[in-house]
Amino acid sequence: MSFVRITTGELRAVGRSVSRSVTERGPERETAVQSLKAAAAGVLAWALAGWWWHAPFALLAPWTALFLVQDTVYRSLVSALQQFAVVVLGTLLAALAGIVTGDTLAALALALPATVLLGTYARFGAQGLYAPTAALFVIAYGTYGPMDIVHRLLETALGATVGLSVNALVLPPVHHRRVRRLRHQLAAESARLLTDAADRLAEREAADEPDDWDDRARWLGDVLTDLRAARRWSDESLRLNPLRRLRHHTDREPADPPPAVADTAWYDITDRLLALMRSLMDVETHPAAIPPDALEPLLAFLRGAARAMGPREQGPDDGEPAGLDAARRAHRALEERLASPGALNPEQASLLSASGHLLAALERACSDAAVSR
Predict the structure, then answer these.
(1) For 290-314, how does the pLDDT look when each residue is reduced to its tens digit (9 = 90+)?
(2) Considering only CA atoms, which of 166, 179, 204 is closest in space to residue 70?
(3) Secondary structure class of 13 (helix, strand, coil)
(4) Residue 240 above 70 pLDDT?
(5) Rounded to an integer, what distance in angstroms lies between the CA atom of residue 188 and that of residue 145?
(6) Which of 45, 47, 217, 302: disulfide with 198, CB 3.0–4.6 Å?
(7) Residue 204: which of 273, 333, 279, 296 has the closest Cα?
(8) CA 62 from chain center: how many Å?
(9) 371 phi, psi to nearest 5 deg
């Protein structure tokens, strides 16, 4: 029964993915497009090598073309060079083993250990797998003459050319969507965290156990790590991409994600936000540590900072965001309402320091964005 439920669930998930690939832009459609391109490259390579050229080892052309429709044009080119080098070496080693031994089993025993070890060379990356595979093709066909080797290499080169050309000229992949999504997620979740904290503190009731605000703030650091990886993928997708402008136009989305220099501000902001959340957790469990007349400016500061981070699509680095001026005024009022520096209790001192650092980080983000434009 459980097997039936699992199978039904998988089929439904597949159906939803297929539906999304047809009805909306997203990773499902990108995967479908790349899969269809790979299939088309394989068919085209076979048509050229097997039907038009009548090559004796035509299988190598579509086999190579299929695996070279990669997620970026740059990756396709690098993989093509790696695979061609691997196939050349694997073919030559297999031919040498066949000539020396004159026996299929002995040739396999001699060639496979060497080609498998060769395939682990880091410079070949994932394409190293094709060294022993190429050797198997050569030994299985049983022909090692110079023209046989030349044909195999030419067919591999043809397949690589077809795969690279299809990927570069037919809807070349550009990966900006994840960068934009993660940037929006950073702004939205940061704003939501500040708003939730303000709403909870407004109740003015001591919590037996503090909320998970620090965990949520630390999670923003994980989003930043994902953003860094997405940036690298996005930048790579533009390298050697001959039709990037046309691809941007067909996507009907902004041509480029927010500038990478703006990401630096988020590292500062999330660090300051984590420190502030820890201070607010102390206030949550000991609300008497903050005088009643300081609560209003504290809540105003949190909500102003939330608006400064969240309302615009690009977050706090997009000019002077709404809410920043309100956060400044609220922070000045908070300083005035609390006791003089000599009389600050630990919760008040921590709160003033953390909130001031967050405000400064937001102001630096706005200043840096203005300079970068």
Answers:
(1) 888 899 999 999 999 999 987 454 4
(2) 166
(3) helix
(4) yes
(5) 65
(6) 302
(7) 296
(8) 29
(9) -70, -40
On the CB side of 265, CA atoms within 13 Å amount to 29
Pair 51, 62: CB distance under 8 Å: no
Give ∠ CA 87-169-255 in degrees, rounded to 5.
Answer: 120
Q: Give burial (CB, 10 Å; 0-12/13-18/19+) of 165.
A: middle
Tokens read off for 365: 């983000």
Q: Quickly list H helices, the chain.
A: 2-23, 27-46, 60-67, 73-101, 104-119, 130-141, 146-169, 177-201, 213-238, 244-251, 263-285, 292-309, 324-337, 346-372
Label residue 293 exposed, middle or buried (CB < 10 Å: 0-12, 13-18, 19+).
exposed
Q: In angstroms, rounded to a whole number, what is the distance separating the alpha carbons of residues 166 and 38?
A: 8
* CA separation for the pair 261, 277 (Å, rounded): 26
Place of tokens 């049983």: 142
Structure tokens at 297: 């400016």
Residue 194, SS3 per DSSP:
helix
Distance CA 143, CA 123 (A): 29
18-36 burial code (b ≥16 CB/10 A, e <16): eeebeeeeeebebeeebee
| Residue with the two structure tokens 């400044």 | 328
pLDDT tens digits, residue range 312-363? Answer: 544 455 545 668 899 999 999 999 988 665 578 888 999 999 999 999 999 9
